Amino acid sequence: MAVSIRLSRGGAKKRPYYRIVVADARSPRDGSFIEKIGTYNPLLAKDDAKRVVLDTDRAKHWLSVGAQPTDRVARFFDAAGVKERAARNNPNKGVPGEKAKERAEERAAKLAEAQEAQQEETVEVVAEAIEEATPDVVEETAETTPAEEASEA
Fold first, then answer.
1. Residue burial 90-114, b: 16+ Cβ < 10 Å; e: rest
2. How confident is the model at residue 57 (pLDDT cuts 50, 70, 90)?
3. Three-state helix/strand/coil letters over the chain
4. What pLDDT shows up at residue 88?
5. Residue 38 backbone dihedrals phi, psi, to 5 degrees
6. In whole angstroms, how large is the CA radius of gyration of the chain?
7. What residue spans define the domains of the chain?
8. CA triplet 131, 132, 134: central angle to 5 degrees?
9. What is the mean pLDDT of the chain?
10. What is the pTM of this model?
């Protein structure tokens, strides 16, 4: 018989309360169980001692017999020092999907276009400012150029 250590939900609607039970793997989540070895109250603060109450001796016994804990219960066991849980590594979990990549590329292209337009605009403004400032200088230098002096004589 396959035995698992899992959570069995109790409590009212929107007020969950779980029992940590040893049950046949084929029985329903809230159905019959072999033994209750602890409780879990997710409504309490994470540092509260009563959030997870666990009978470590019975948990060790059931693990030695071959009961398989669920992921959440394995986390509780790891925190209590009953059984070490191997850290999972899924490097592809944080990688964005195809559509998100397409949206990011579109955003980057729009941003690049906006920056180019802004650069061109600032170049034009600077060029206009230079043109406005240079005619005065050109007129002053034009009066005193040696070519004009030679033609006047």
1. eeeeeeeeeeeeeeeeeeeeeeeee
2. very high
3. CCEEEEEEEEEECCEEEEEEEEEECCCCCCCCCCEEEEEECCCCCCCCCCCEEECHHHHHHHHHHCCEECHHHHHHHHHHCCCCCCCCCCCCCCCCCHHHHHHHHHHHHHHHHHHHHHHHHHHHHHHHHHHHHHHHHHHHHHHCCHHHHHHHC
4. 77
5. 175, -175
6. 38
7. 3-80, 98-143
8. 60
9. 86
10. 0.58
Q: Hey, what CATH class is 3-80 in?
A: alpha beta
Residue 47's alpha-carbon distances to 41, 50, 51, 87, in angstroms, are: 12, 9, 8, 22
pLDDT in tens, 22-52: 999 998 988 889 999 999 999 999 999 999 9
> First-to-last CA distance in the chain?
121
Cα(149)–Cα(10) distance, integer angstroms: 105
- What's the pLDDT tens digit per position in 97-117? 999 999 999 999 999 999 988
